Amino acid sequence: MPRVRLVGEDGEQIGIKDTKEALEYAYSKNLDLVEVAKDADPPVARVMDYGKWRYEQEQRAKQARKHQSTINIKEIKFRPKIGVHDYETKKGHVVRFLNQRAKVKVTIMFRGRENLHPERGRTLLERLAEDVKELGQVEQQPTLDGRNMIMVLGPTKNAGVKHDAEGEDGERSEEALQGERGGKGDAPPRDEEPQPHEEVVEA
Fold first, then answer.
1. What is the mean pLDDT of each run of 10 residues along the chain (203 residues)?
2. What is the pTM of this model?
3. Under CATH, domain 3-50 is a member of which superfamily?
4. How many whole angstroms separate alpha carbon 151 and alpha carbon 136?
5. How far, in whole angstroms, is CA 85 from its chain's centroid?
């Protein structure tokens, strides 16, 4: 390529230069001349610190891969006529998934003539969203997909933060301290206290 369209280190257009002249310009600034658009006429070359540019590109790619690997989607399925006990159990699964910083795809499955009343599925999804609003926010509103209705929840900033467990620890410490001061030994032994992490798992 005898001539190139030269772009400076700050992105300024320097103009069309002989390749030799462009190289001399880059070297005078202790930088590299890098071809960035070989199919252009004439090809475009930019003055830059090639080592620094490669490092920055690698870091961006690394961050993108890291972000992609942390996106985790769980799915849980409901029937529109779900019972109270089953609803609470499945809601507990949703809470657990959100506390794991996972997105949750909630699917209402309609069977037979149930799809004639999609409002029942929507009402159930809205109820679930309201019940878990401290941990999950609606990222995709309830939408019909064939015989199913789908809603996607994403974790809020509160998801995975064990405020309740910390509060319980503080209350237990205060109770134990009061028991020692009163000399009555009312505070239960620590080996008999329920552990916060066990409660989270059971939820």
1. 86 89 90 88 91 90 74 90 94 94 94 88 94 94 92 92 52 46 47 37 31
2. 0.48
3. Translation initiation factor 3 (IF-3), N-terminal domain (3.10.20.80)
4. 12
5. 30
